[in-house]
Amino acid sequence: MASPDFTLSAGPVTVTARTLAALGKPILYHYDPEFLTAFERTQGKVAQVFRTTNDIVLMQGEAIVGLEGALRSLITPGMHVLNLVQGVFGKGTGYWITDFGAVLHEIEVGYDDAVSPAQVEAYLDLHPEIQMVCLVASETPSGTVTDVAAIGPLCRDRGILSYVDTVSGVLGMPWETDEWGLDLCVAGAQKCLGGPPGVALISVSQRAWDAMYANPAAPRDSYLSLIDWKEKWLGGRRFPYTPSVSDINGLESALDQALEEGVDAVVARHEDAAAVTRAGATAMGLTLWAKSETFASACVTSIRLPDDIDNVRVRDHAREVYGVMLSHGQGAGNLVRLSHMGPTAGGLYSIVGLAALGRTLVDLGMQLDVGAGLEQALAVLSTQRN
Length: 386
Ligand SMILES: *Cc1c(COP(=O)(O)O)cnc(C)c1O
Prior knowledge:
Belongs to the class-V pyridoxal-phosphate-dependent aminotransferase family. By secondary structure, the chain is of the alpha/beta class. Helix content is 44%, strand content 16%. A hairpin with a 6-residue loop joins strand 14 and strand 15 (335-339).
C-alpha cells in the first residue's frame, strides 16, 4: 500500500522538513565535543519548554522508558500512592504501582470524564498516608485533560510527591512545571513537539531525587535507572549508554522551532486547531467523546461512534480510501480521533481530517452533513486568521 497523503495520527506525528533535515545530519561519536555540546544544549531547551529549573534527563527510548524508570525509582515498597484514572494510560499506571510494590489508592472516573481537583483534595484530606500522586495530564487515547494547574499545587502544599505523565501535555496545554510544583514530569518528543519517537524528556525536582536516593528499590546500573543518569551524565559527563545521535539532532531542531514560535503561541495554535475541529465535527452531526468541552484536549479531538460502526474499521477505511491516517480509540472506547498535534495543529489540516472522517462515516452508513461541518470549521478558522 502507498504511503498516506496525510498523517493525522495522535503520535508519532508528521514532522517538519527542518526536523527531517536535522535527523539526516551526520552521526557523530557520542563523545565528540560537538555532540556533547548539542546534548547539553538540548537539555537546556527542554527545560525552557517545561518552564523549569529542575534537572532534565533525556532517556533514550520511547516515553514509556522514562515513565517506567521514574516510577520504579520513586516507589518504595509499601508506600501509599494515589493514582488518578480517567483513561487508558492512567489505568496502566495503576497496574505498575501495584506491580512495583506500593499500596494503590485510586480515584477513577469514566474515560469521557475528568478527575476534579476537589475529588483529589477530599481524598488527600481523608488519607494522610498518601506519599505520592500519579496523574496523566493529557489522556491521548480519549482526548481529555486533567487540571494539573490545580492538582500540582495541592500536592506540593502538602509535601506529597507528584508524578505526571505529560507525554502529550507539554506544548499541547499551558505548562508550568515549577509554578505548579511538579516533581517528576515525562514528555515524549513525538507528540505536540513534532519530533521523532525515541527520546523520553524528564524533569526531576530535588525532592524527587531525594526520594529516589532514599529508595533501596530504585534501579541502579540499569537501563531504567534515573540515578545512573544523575551520577554518570549530570554528575560526570559520562553516558550510561549511547544515546541515539540522530534522535537528539531531530529533537533539538523541533525544540528550536517551538522556541522560535514561542511556547505560548504553540499552545494557542493547538487550542485554535481544536476549536476548528470541534466546531466542524459537531456541525456535521457528530458527537464529541468528552462529556464536557472544558476538559476536551487541545491536541486531539475524540469523536463518539455509534455502536454498529467499529473504530478500527473507521481508521482503516479513511486510510485505504482517502489516504488519511487517523487514530482509533486504542482501547479507550468506540471512538475515533482527529489529531491536531505538532505541525498538524493549525491551518487546513483539521479540514482535511474532518473531510476524511466525515465521508468515511457516510460511506459506512451514517447520516451526516459533511458539507455543513466543513463550512462551520472554515468559518471558525477564518475568524482566527482575520
Ligand atoms: C503516547 C503516550 C505515551 C507513550 O506511550 P506509547 O504507547 O508508546 O505511545 C504515554 N502516555 C501518554 C499519555 C501518551 O499519549
